[in-house]
Amino acid sequence: MTATAFESWMHEVQQEVERALDANLPQATALPHKLHEAMRYTALGGGKRVRPLLAYAAGDLFGGNASVLARVASAVEMIHVYSLVHDDMPCMDDDDLRRGKPTVHVAYDEATALLVGDALQAQAFQVLADIDTLPPARQVLMLRLLAEAAGSSGMCGGQAIDLDSVGLSLTREELERMHQLKTGAMLRVSVILGALAGRDLSATEMEALGAYSKAIGLAFQVVDDVLDATADSATLGKTAGKDAADNKPTYVSILGLEPSKELAEQLRREAHEALAPFGEQALRLRDLADLIVQRKA
Amino acid sequence: MTATAFESWMHEVQQEVERALDANLPQATALPHKLHEAMRYTALGGGKRVRPLLAYAAGDLFGGNASVLARVASAVEMIHVYSLVHDDMPCMDDDDLRRGKPTVHVAYDEATALLVGDALQAQAFQVLADIDTLPPARQVLMLRLLAEAAGSSGMCGGQAIDLDSVGLSLTREELERMHQLKTGAMLRVSVILGALAGRDLSATEMEALGAYSKAIGLAFQVVDDVLDATADSATLGKTAGKDAADNKPTYVSILGLEPSKELAEQLRREAHEALAPFGEQALRLRDLADLIVQRKA
Asked: Does domain B2-294 bear CATH number 1.10.600.10?
């Protein structure tokens, strides 16, 4: 029963996010056409929308209204999508397939992929800054947190460490630090911004949401590594087995397959524990922790 | 006499901007070292700092305080620098020399150049969002204007049009529209944010500053084209004659050299006229219009 209610909630949010992205991306009829078309090509019609789902789940818990959540979800997803576009470029991971379709530099060209990513990042900040119903002081805080999560002490920093780690044997602690920046920072800010869409947060609430985010962030990466080692490209919608082929350190290469699966399960429990102070109300955040660990793609 | 006072004001602002960038960029000792080192390599120690100078000049006129102006100037310069780093990459202009030193993808590698640009853009928003002495509603407006100027209906949009114009013969109107986005949007927002560092602006004031910015934005580009056609690489600190070699439409290719010089002079007068409502106080903005037209590099 809960599973079914969760699935229909998730489906509803994913449709809402699609509508919100459509509304918050520049129209393809606006100049420059090709850039806008390419931004829409990569941002619309695909992806699990994990970050938007986290924002909506936290928004539910803290009473965020629908139109603010739609913008918050669009903003975090745009940052995520831009990072994928740049990450797929030949000078980075050189990947041809993403979310089951050709990557931007393949469907268009490299220069367009570069600009699409750059413009999506700016668009994310614009979508968040354009909200006109939030208390401005809280909105400035949200913009600051998004910038921090996206930048060199967050996502970009994690990618830089990732890049420099190819061929190195990282310790588990080093691997964890990299992923806390590369993926964890944006997952965490998705939760926090979703909550802030509703109201100001106490230090205790911020800490509990932070602990939840840390656990699901790591779980997300552990499961990614497990899937990369065990699933096939068609299921993943991207090239499987890339990490081993690229000689990248992963949880599977450091801990082994079974211990990695056990770690994911342990992190799922930690995520649930972090939500204890919020009681029954944190239903969707708990469901998402389960989803992140149990997903097959 | 005025020239000398202006020159020492300019020198003082440039030193202040260098200090501000140094303070507002992540330290190279913070992880990830290479990324932070490369961000500092490209952002520090070079450049005419035209956008920061415009922000300070407008800030002077509207009473902006020094610490807010330092952050506004850092933010607009970081956006500018990130655009240069990405623009110089092999998939764009493929340039080896910038501000008299090797470009980031030459001094480091392409992947680092990509991440340096991405991280500098996020850092720009963070530096602006981190100001804690502005009325939050005005600060949200400033963040919104910066995002708009940097994104697909501003700088990135202009670069996309530029990219698609190689080998085409643009009309003067099309060329003007491209430059209004590519360079004009960031010059304009530098002026507006500098003014907003001081106080809220009336619609009339916003319009006058917009007219000034439009004139100097176009003048800036016309002069760029003239210099690209007439100066040498050592003077420019970047490869001269690139536009013709790349078959890019320029004012010189459309209007010819002498009419381009006359146009620049006419735009300088228009910039002065736009400042008339502000009287003597707009001294530094007038000086900068003169500088933009009369510069040799």
From this structure: yes
